[in-house]
């Protein structure tokens, strides 16, 4: 159980840092705005994306949030990573930029798997 919690928290904190903290701190920079334009999205899309990313990571790290809300957050991040990868493949072609979101998709999948292992253990312990 201890190993499951450690793996869950390490992967979830990675998602928290890269999908919550980093976008919150850098979303209004010219580089970030240019990145959104480069992919063909309007500027307001980037702003909305940052708001939902911050809400999503808060849902993942706050233990009191109901399980079904966490499921939606995991699904939202899954879609985010998949569509980010598709956007980069479409605009930039095959390259590291296109595969980078898929690395985070794997980290998210590990977090999700271990979240459920912990929840299953809690239910058995009751």
UniProtKB/TrEMBL annotation:
Q: How does it sit in the membrane?
A: Multi-pass membrane protein
Is the Transmembrane keyword given for this protein? yes
* Localization: Membrane
Cross-referenced InterPro entries? DoxX
Tell me the domain of life. Answer: Bacteria
Q: Name one Pfam family in it.
A: DoxX_2
Which UniProt keywords are present, listed alphabetically? Membrane, Transmembrane, Transmembrane helix
Which ranges does the record mark as transmembrane? 7-25, 45-65, 72-90, 96-115
Main location (coarse class): membrane
- What's the name of the protein? DoxX family protein
Q: Could you tell me which species this protein originates from?
A: Flavobacterium azizsancarii
Classification from the root reads: Bacteria, Pseudomonadati, Bacteroidota, Flavobacteriia, Flavobacteriales
